[in-house]
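Before a colleague's protein record goes any further, I have to sign it off. Alongside the sequence sits a line of tokens, each denoting a local backbone shape. I want your independent view on whether this chain really folds as the tokens say. Where you disagree with what is written, explain briefly why. This is what I was given:
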Amino acid sequence: MDNRNDDKKVVYRPYITTKDGRRIWAKWYGKRAFRIEL
């Protein structure tokens, strides 16, 4: 077994969606995008 994380994909999005459907925008925190590992 190798230790590479091939199953993890990293994407950058300007917002994240919470479980209740709201969007949290990165610009509220002074960021351009959130780093999301899928």
